[in-house]
Design goal:
Number of helices: 4
Radius of gyration: 13 Å
Structural class: alpha+beta
Largest sheet: 2 strands, antiparallel
Strand order of the largest sheet: 1-2
Shape: globular
Number of strands: 4
Oligomer: single chain
Amino acid sequence: MKAWASALDPTNASGIRFLADPTGEFTRALDLAFDGGAVFGGDRSKRYALVIEDGKVRQVHVEPDNTGVVVSTAEKVLKDW
């Protein structure tokens, strides 16, 4: 996640916080885990983006097929924001 953040926002100017979930605890709490055992070897997180303002979730963008890149792209999320 750190490498991704460095590549996309090297000066931290966007205000976007890049967070990892190495144990999957956050993902499971949001009910955004899926069984990816057949392909990925275990549970995986659905692809999603959250817009959070003042500590409150304002928007949730979850890919309908778990792994696609249609509704959770930065362009789509920022357009809807």
